[in-house]
Amino acid sequence: MRAQDVAHEVAERLSRAGSPSPGPEARILVAHALGIEPSQLLISRVSKRQRPVIDALAERRAEGVPLQHLTGEAYFRHETLKVGPGVFIPRPETEEMVGWALDRLAERPSDRRRVVELCAGSGAITAALARELGHIELHAVELSPEAHAYLARNLEGLGVDILLGDMAEAFHELDGTVDLVIANPPYIPEAHRQILPDDVLQDPEIALFSGPDGLDALRVVAEVGRRLLRPGGLLATEHDDSHAPAVVELFETAGFAEVASRNDLTGRPRFVTATRPPVSGRIGL
Ligand SMILES: C[S@@+](CC[C@H](N)C(=O)[O-])C[C@H]1O[C@@H](n2cnc3c(N)ncnc32)[C@H](O)[C@@H]1O
Questions:
Q1: Where are the beta strands (DSSP E) in the chain?
Q2: CATH no. of 3-65
Q3: For 214-257, how does the pLDDT look when each residue is reduced to its tens digit (9 = 90+)?
Q4: Catalytic-role residue among 22, 66, 76, 88
Q5: Which residues does a 6 A CB cutoff place in the pocket of ligand 1?
Q6: pLDDT tens readout for residues 75-97
Q7: Which of 185, 186, 269, 271 is an active site residue?
Q8: Span 86-275 CATH architecture
């Protein structure tokens, strides 16, 4: 049977199951099962042995298993990352923050590009920084052992200093010397657990929830940022799109300067950037 026709059938199955983008998902699943690129579907055929594999994948996707867990891969900017249960699937909402960071780093001399990523997960952010600009000294910390295994795999060969541990205590040896701290921490309020869509709940809890107001991890990011950054160093952190005023206030209260709210690709306020002021002061958290 022609692969293109099988992809149409799978798309109909996924559409009935409520998939928001059944066509592209079906093409990715069928191509994955055949071991080809989606662009090759038009010139490929599905054998009798391959068909049950495709049907099983379509069934699991229809049951709500994330597409990325079925293929084992997620895309972020120009990166293809290994993912699976136990690691947060990188989201396009984070891509704009990485673009901002790349622009700021490119303005700096290459000996002023020491970067720490907090809450690194699959390593999507650090991998993009490493490959898109280069000449960056990169450090990344992740608390979950399951996620750390993906982090190590995705960053293999990029020369990144990778740590399994709590960001609160990470990289003390770099205190006061870092040029950029970047993070996409957990930021969903505990109370939102009941109203989250099923696909979000497929990500590990430790990657999602952060105390009653969703700001617990962001408070730690502010503290660790103050500790790690050199005077004039930059911080960028993602947050929930409803939290922009609260996160701006949090970083201003923590003594950061030039605190600014910035939008993601869809125009929603998604990340805050700030500068560690030249004169160190008490953290007002
Ligand atoms: C929202 S995910 C982001 C992952 C990745 N940076 C990305 O953008 O795809 C948050 C990550 O923070 C990790 N994490 C949560 N608390 C942490 C802590 N105290 N220290 C280090 N990592 C932590 C979680 O395990 C999870 O991998």
A1: 73-76, 79-82, 114-118, 137-142, 161-164, 178-183, 229-238, 257-263, 269-275
A2: 1.10.8
A3: 999 999 999 999 999 999 999 999 999 999 999 999 999 999 99
A4: 88
A5: 88, 90, 94, 119-122, 124-125, 141-144, 147, 166-167, 184-186, 206-207, 217
A6: 999 999 999 999 999 999 999 99
A7: 185
A8: 3-Layer(aba) Sandwich (3.40)
